[in-house]
Write a structure and sequence with these properties.
The protein has 248 residues and is of the alpha+beta class. The protein has five helices and 14 strands. It has one domain: Deoxyribonuclease I, Chain A (4-Layer Sandwich).
Length: 248
């Protein structure tokens, strides 16, 4: 089964000069739907995005858990309702107490950080897989510990092929990247090897390649492409998304 995946940090709130949520939402819809993804992982999903995503992506089911009552921000997962049967959902915090709502290892902002996951069955083929979506904090220790925890949970959650997408806030040269690639393969690194910036700050930032898809040994990487399109010269977000294809 070939699976089409999009991951996108959609920027949590409004920004000036044509970058409010309401202005960016149709751009996000346009550039995302060009790739006709089977599943989507968003990061920095917030309350202002709820109706926009619901109205613009009606063919998808969504699983979402806000990371705390204090931080209404999330990394939800969407899947095409006509293609997949939902078998299970879950989440855990990137902290030393992952089963309890808790601040974790974000060494810069001291935020709540978490990972959400779904287990889906492809209706046509019967194949089952686990999709995890996350948004790491900052700092080497936190990213290393988060990477270890993600791997541990990937084995705990299910025996099925597993992949992880997200904004990892870490470059390929970081300790966190070295840790997670002990256990998973970086799809981009194994295919396109495109190390251009993924966080661009609306075109003002460079050298921030921090968004990834990692796969376990049961999945074959097929392709990877940055979603770097603009609409009328305006970006959908302060990150580029990416589109990847996987064989499960």
């Amino acid at each position: 089964m070939e699976l089409k995946v999009v991951s996108f940090n959609i920027r949590y709130g409004d920004d000036p000069n044509g970058y409010s949520v309401a202005e960016r939402a149709p751009r996000l819809e346009y550039v995302t739907k060009k790739y006709d993804p089977d599943v989507i992982g968003f990061q920095e999903y917030t309350v202002p995005w709820e109706k926009e995503i619901e109205n613009r992506f009606p063919e998808y089911e969504i699983f979402n858990k806000y990371r705390s009552v204090h931080e209404l921000e999330a990394a939800p997962i969407l899947w095409k309702r006509d293609k997949f049967e939902l078998l299970n959902t879950g989440y855990f915090w990137l902290s030393s107490t992952p089963e309890v709502e808790s601040r974790g290892w974000d060494e810069l902002y001291n935020c709540w950080r978490m990972c959400e996951y779904v287990i889906l069955k492809h209706k046509e083929s019967g194949k089952v897989f686990t999709y995890m979506n996350t948004h790491y904090g900052f700092g080497d220790k936190g990213q290393v510990d988060s990477s270890r925890l993600i791997y541990e949970y990937s084995k705990k959650i299910s025996p099925y092929p597993t992949f992880v997408t997200g904004d990892f806030n870490m470059r390929p040269s970081s300790l966190g990247y070295a840790e997670i690639t002990k256990h998973f393969t970086d799809v981009n690194g194994a295919t396109a090897n495109d190390r251009r910036t993924t966080y661009h700050g609306y075109g003002t930032v460079d050298n921030e390649h921090i968004d990834y898809c990692f796969i376990d040994e049961k999945i074959k990487p097929l392709s990877f492409k940055l979603i770097d399109e603009t609409v009328d010269g305006k970006y959908p977000s302060d990150h580029y998304g990416f589109f990847t294809t996987l064989e499960i």
